[in-house]
Amino acid sequence: MNYKSLNQLYSEHEGKISDKWSLYLAEYDRIFTEYRNKPISMLEVGIQNGGSLEIWAKYFSHGEKFVGCDINSDCSLLQYNDPRIAVVIGDVNSDSVRDEILQHCQEYDIVIDDGSHISSDIIKTFAKYFPNIMDGGV
Hints:
Layout lengths: L5 H7 L9 H11 L8 E5 L5 H9 L5 E6 L14 E5 L5 H10 L5 E4 L5 H11 L9
């Protein structure tokens, strides 16, 4: 099947804003290609304006769940027509937010941390969610 690249989907996207750096798009495409046709679940930490969740849902057309988490309460205003997309508000490293994220899906095929970009936060998130990455996940 001939799929559009992530860069194509990103450039054609209308709706909620996504501001991923183009350098990331090629790497995401390379890393995620083998997952495109699978019923994946994804957790994205740091969704800002929410557009990336819409793009991921297009990119992974067979995906089953896309959960975004952001500490910014403004993200609670984001509305999606796609029932596969959910948003959790709060600090991804708090136990209550982790519980809420895991209510959506107990294990994830893909976890992207695009949150605070602070090393100590990244390490905490990795340690907290690595046990919930499926075998073969990334």
